[in-house]
Write a structure and sequence with these properties.
This protein is α+β, with helices and mostly antiparallel strands and 51 residues long. The chain is 37% helix and 22% strand.
Length: 51
């Protein structure tokens, strides 16, 4: 996935587990539970600010 931005949605939110998801292409990690009604806005904000 070289050169493609990635956002992970994960269940585990311990710091070491979140950090293990981080790779150069990973721009954000969204932990669960998340608010489904605001998820699109959250992803749009990530896209606009980090990609």
């Amino acid at each position: 996935m070289k050169g493609k931005p990635v956002v992970f949605m994960i269940v585990k939110v311990q710091t070491e587990e979140v950090e293990s998801c981080r790779e150069p292409a990973v721009v954000e990690v969204i932990p669960r539970p998340f608010a489904p009604m605001t998820l699109a806005d959250q992803i749009r904000e990530i896209w606009m600010s980090k990609v």
